[in-house]
Amino acid sequence: MTASQPYSDSRPADDGALSLQDLWSVVSKHKIRIAILAFLGVVIGLIFYVNSTPLYRVKMTVTATEDTTSEAGAGSGVLGRLTGMQSSSQRNFERFKVMLTTAAVAQELADKHAAFTIFFPQLWDEKQKKWNPPSGLRASISGFIKGMIGAKKWTPPTSDDLRQEISKRLTIIEINDNTVDLAFEFDDPEIAAKLLLAMHHAADTILRNEVKQTATARIKYLENTLPDVSDVNNRLTLINLMSTQQVMLMLSQATPPFSATILDNPVIPSSPAKPRLMLAILGGLILGVAVGIIWAFLLSPFGRRVGNHD
Predict the structure, then answer these.
(1) Cα 61 from chain centroid?
(2) For the purposes of burial, counting CB atoms within 10 Å of the CB of 193, is it exposed (0-12), middle (13-18) or buried (19 or more)?
(3) Judging by beta carbons within 10 Å of its beta carbon (0-12, 13-18, 19+), is residue 192 exposed, middle or buried?
(4) Rounded to two decimals, what is the model's pTM?
(5) Which of 79, 98, 95, 74 is nearest to 248 (CA)?
(6) Which one of 3.30.1890, 3.40.50, 3.80.10, 1.10.10 gives the CATH number of domain 53-120+157-267?
(7) 245 has which bridge partners?
(8) Peptide linkage before 275 cis (omega within 30 of 0)
């Protein structure tokens, strides 16, 4: 008869892994500290909300201008596909959307609407009528770092700087292939509405002038080429092509708009889109809770164990 063996616990030894039960234990032990940090996070969120500049989102709906080239000019079937007449409206509309955020439109806004002083008021000295470099601690640190790495020194805002500001503030919301909402964020909703209208006019005018110049050059080329062509079919093709360009030239000289028609004028909102109070509070709360849990973990035996391993 064998002697009875002493009882032994067959459960695996603790491998140091942190279970959900352990995490909950840590959170429960330090719940007051976590609650305090959560409250501080909410306070930080409120401070951020109060000190943030309100941004209003102004919207304007535009659609592709109706294409009349297929009705006014010759060419259909193969010729129409070759000249792209059947899709000129859509093509011009796509170019319009791209043109809105180009340096050319930015420069047009600067020349006719004083856009530089609107977008960079903190750098403009109205009394002395000159640009001043940014000031303050942040600007000093940035200038010191740029000097250390040999970066380009500060210069007054350029049309490319203005283009980047417009790109950050403008959102193009696709409704369908031929219609979009243009949403522009700015601290003054009335100025934002005026800027939207000015950008539409500038982009449309630039495209109109480009088409006018292109059509004029092509007509001149075709007029010079036509006398040297003797084949009847080739002459007919060139005549049709010239007719198409004449239609494009005529349309480019017609009353605006050329590429995009305004369906709904800018709508001025009654309240800002950013910042949002609930998002600021929720973000601060989440940040505070996360910091509190991390701190509690580092103070717990599990956190010290990780530190000892390192």
Answers:
(1) 17
(2) buried
(3) buried
(4) 0.70
(5) 74
(6) 3.30.1890
(7) none
(8) yes
Cβ count within 10 A of residue 58: 23
- Residues in Cβ contact with 151 at an 8 Å cutoff, skipping those fewer than 6 apart: 145
User: Pick from 211, 236, 253: which is nearest to 74 by CA?
Assistant: 236
Which single residue is written with the structure tokens 């630039």?
Answer: 206
- Strand runs labelled E in 232-307: 260-267
Q: Which residues of 75-102 are buried (b: 16+ CB within 10 A; e: fewer)?
A: beeeebeebebbbbbeebbebbbebbbb
Digit-coded pLDDT (tens) for 173-183? 999 989 999 99
Domain ranges across the chain: 28-50+276-309, 53-120+157-267
Q: pLDDT (tens digit, 9 = 90+) per residue, 206-249?
A: 999 998 898 889 989 988 988 888 888 988 998 888 888 887 77
In whole angstroms, give the CA distance from residue 59 to residue 265: 8
